[in-house]
Amino acid sequence: MKKYLNYYVRNFDYPLFFTYLFLCLFGLVMIYSSSIMVSIVDKDTPTFYYRKQLMNLIVAAFAFFVGAFIPYKHFSNKRIMQIMTALVLILLAWVKIKGVEAGGAESWINLGVMNFQPSEFAKLFIILYFAGAFYRKSLNNPMENLEPNNIVYPILVWLVIIGFVGTEVDLGAVLILSGIAIAVVAASGIQFKKFIKFFTVLIVLGTAMLGLLILIKGDGLLTDNRIGRIKAFLNPFEYESGSSYQVINGYIAIGSGGLEGVGLGQSIQKLGYLPEPQTDFIMAIIAEELGILGVIIVLGGLGFIVFRALTIALKTKDPLARMIAAGIGSWIAVQSFVNLGGLSGLIPLTGVTLPFISYGGTSILILSFAMGVLVNVSMYVKLEKKL
Prior knowledge:
Layout: H1 2-11, H2 14-43, H3 48-69, H4 78-98, E1 100-102, E2 105-110, E3 115-116, H5 118-140, H6 152-167, H7 171-186, H8 192-221, H9 224-234, H10 245-257, H11 282-315, H12 319-344, H13 361-386
Antiparallel strand pairs: 1-2, 2-3
């Protein structure tokens, strides 16, 4: 044990860890600043969301070190893969039976002390399951020789998860889960022509699944809220008092910040103009209070983590390590794009949180475990270079 701890300390990825820690603490400060008015109005105390997120971070720290200490090779173990599959399907099925609605999506489970969102766990599961399944296949048949029909089972598992999450009407999570699956396959080592075949299969099956969801739950998918978001995306200023209200106030917050910002804690838009600013619109408050500098700090931290993950993936010779690292990096990149794209008007709003920054217990818990796994992979890559 002592020998392992010494190895752990020597090879620990400190730049990755401190960037993750900085973003979490920066997010905590901004959650406190952005949620004061909401906390007072809803909970009669200015520190409600701050204290909740502080507790979330304490639990998340434990999850990080669990992920960092577990050798990543274990995630390709057949029994562990079966347990993870059963767990994610049970959680997603539980949502359908006793799901709680929040933010327009029925995607939460009430655990009493907190609400848990299984779709967040599904993002990490897809990375570990796809990586483990492809790695096990490659032991008998090199990845470059694999055909799409050789990996039918992982595709079916992905489709089932997409079906569950899609019927929760959590379209942002569907987009992220699709991006993660494609990224892991791209990092697997499969030949480019075969990757295009795989990508085509995903598009065809995904389109078929979407068509089936529309037939089964058409009214649930095309709610007034979602139609309003599409209209707000196409012409936000035409619906500024309706479906574009949040988007327009986000623009005002960003524009008010300018280069230097109005000062930490001095946001006007958080005073009831921007609904729930501590969640998916927290970057608008950062831009208003800290200006472009605050935005650059957040984007720099997220960009460093993504760059570090992809660098780890490129350096390692182990296909399992490569797929896990690329999957985690792509997850953070895609989710950040979906959040910031909705905020800036590049894509319709989806209600996706900004990684490590936005308020949310499930998000920070699962992301922290994923960062621990990434650190574990990074340590292996360092050891691999020494051998």
